[in-house]
């Protein structure tokens, strides 16, 4: 089980350290886990002058899976655009063809009060957001900044999807829906954007191969509203890169915190990159305050999706449930009556629960 570990920037190294401790326990108990670290993002720029250095590329291409902390930080925001940390993240996703991003928003019952919604609206929440990750306005050409025909400065990006890109993510989403409750909601803006009208058309076409799945469609603005009105109407949601980015951050708060939302980014063969959905949290970086659970839960997703180690994945997820039931909380999910712990303190608790 060859895992490339990319701590990245900001809180990245702190949360990755805790996930590594979890993997160390599993290794001691017999899983043949091999970990090797490399820099990505700002750390890549600092070490090699580019956000996705060749050293990192080689390691990640040779690995079975990649575990990533987060990238980015204000100190890098003034770099030339291609050198910015976030470009390193986009580059590795494209390089490894990680087109299917799974972001499960699950409410642990102990965190019902941490959710921004009333407990009765979110209790039992379990949504899987399937986000297309290597297309859309993130990658569409042309893009850039320049001067238009009138001599005025302008900037542009292109929302673009090919048929094969939409078909393959549709199959992933329908496949997941088949294993769950056979309900899939495709989120688009087909009333305005050709790209997503096309998306919707292809979703309807692929649906013919999955007659047991009930496919519905929703405009993204309504979906954003419905997620905070009545989120339990959703089971699996499938959407494009930018809508999925935004809706998954929104959904994270239904579960109590962005620090609880893991993710898997998969290629056609379940090789994957696993990372929390949040960023490098510069406001709390270096203070041992970050919630490491999204990263630890991402490691559990890695055990499940890339390595097929369902039992080990459940063991990690159950350890997370245990520490929440024991009352351990980092600041982002803290409530009166619970025990406040640091990032490493949460790691201690998870290791003890394992
Ligand atoms: N996948 C990634 O690596 C990724 C994702 C999102 C943003 N970013 C980058 O991260 C930097 C900061 O972005 P941002 O501030 O918009 O988003 P962010 O997710 O880093 O932070 C948003 C808020 O959530 C809090 N937060 C995030 N993760 C947390 C955790 N584990 N525990 C407790 N609190 C947590 C932060 O303290 C902050 O208040 C930017 O450079 C951005 O581009 C990277
Ligand atoms: C940092 C950024 C490139 C990234 C994205 O937009 O995909 C992040 O917000 C995420 O959700 O993983
Ligand atoms: Mg995001």
UniProtKB/TrEMBL annotation:
The record marks 138, 189 as: Important for catalysis. It is found in: Cytoplasm. The keyword Transmembrane helix does not apply. Pathway: Amino-acid biosynthesis; L-leucine biosynthesis; L-leucine from 3-methyl-2-oxobutanoate: step 3/4. This is 3-isopropylmalate dehydrogenase. Pfam families: Iso_dh (PF00180). The keyword Secreted does not apply. It comes from the Bacteria. Belongs to the isocitrate and isopropylmalate dehydrogenases family. LeuB type 1 subfamily. Substrate binds at residues 93, 103, 131, 221. Gene3D superfamilies: Isopropylmalate Dehydrogenase. NAD(+) binds at residues 73-86, 279-291. Its cofactor is Mg(2+); Mn(2+). It catalyses: (2R,3S)-3-isopropylmalate + NAD(+) = 4-methyl-2-oxopentanoate + CO2 + NADH. SUPFAM superfamilies: Isocitrate/Isopropylmalate dehydrogenase-like. Homodimer. The gene is leuB. Mg(2+) binds at residues 221, 245, 249. It comes from Aquitalea aquatica. Its EC number is 1.1.1.85. Binds 1 Mg(2+) or Mn(2+) ion per subunit.
């Amino acid at each position: 089980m060859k895992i490339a570990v990319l701590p990245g920037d900001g809180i990245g190294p702190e949360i990755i350290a805790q996930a590594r401790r979890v993997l160390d326990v599993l290794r001691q108990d017999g899983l043949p886990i091999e970990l090797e670290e490399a820099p990505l993002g700002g750390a890549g720029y600092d070490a090699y002058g580019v956000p996705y250095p060749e050293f990192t590329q080689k390691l990640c291409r040779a690995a079975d899976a990649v575990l990533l902390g987060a990238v980015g930080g204000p100190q890098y925001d003034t770099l030339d655009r291609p050198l910015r940390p976030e470009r390193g993240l986009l580059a590795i996703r494209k390089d490894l063809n990680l087109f299917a991003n799974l972001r499960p928003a699950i409410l642990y019952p102990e965190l019902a009060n941490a959710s921004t919604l009333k407990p009765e609206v979110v209790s039992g929440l379990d949504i899987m957001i399937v986000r297309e990750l290597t297309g859309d306005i993130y990658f569409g050409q042309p893009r850039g900044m320049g001067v238009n025909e009138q001599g005025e400065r302008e900037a542009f990006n292109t929302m673009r999807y090919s048929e094969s890109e939409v078909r393959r993510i549709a199959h992933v989403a329908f496949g997941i829906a088949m294993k769950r409750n056979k309900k899939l909601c495709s989120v688009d803006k087909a009333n305005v954007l050709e790209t997503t009208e096309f998306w919707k058309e292809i979703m309807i076409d692929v649906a013919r191969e999955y007659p047991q799945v009930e496919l519905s469609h929703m405009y993204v603005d309504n979906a954003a509203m419905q997620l905070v009105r009545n989120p339990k109407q959703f089971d699996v949601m499938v959407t494009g890169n930018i809508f999925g980015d935004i809706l998954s951050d929104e959904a994270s708060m239904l579960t109590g915190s962005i620090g609880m939302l893991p993710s898997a980014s998969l290629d056609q063969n379940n090789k994957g990159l696993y990372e929390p959905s949040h960023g490098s949290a510069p406001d709390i970086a270096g203070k041992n305050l970050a919630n490491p659970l999204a990263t630890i839960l991402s490691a559990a997703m890695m055990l499940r999706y890339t390595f097929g180690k369902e039992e080990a994945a459940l063991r990690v997820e159950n350890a997370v449930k245990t520490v929440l039931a024991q009352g351990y909380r980092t600041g982002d999910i803290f409530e009166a009556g619970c025990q406040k712990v640091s990032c490493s303190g949460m790691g201690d608790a998870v290791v003890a629960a394992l």
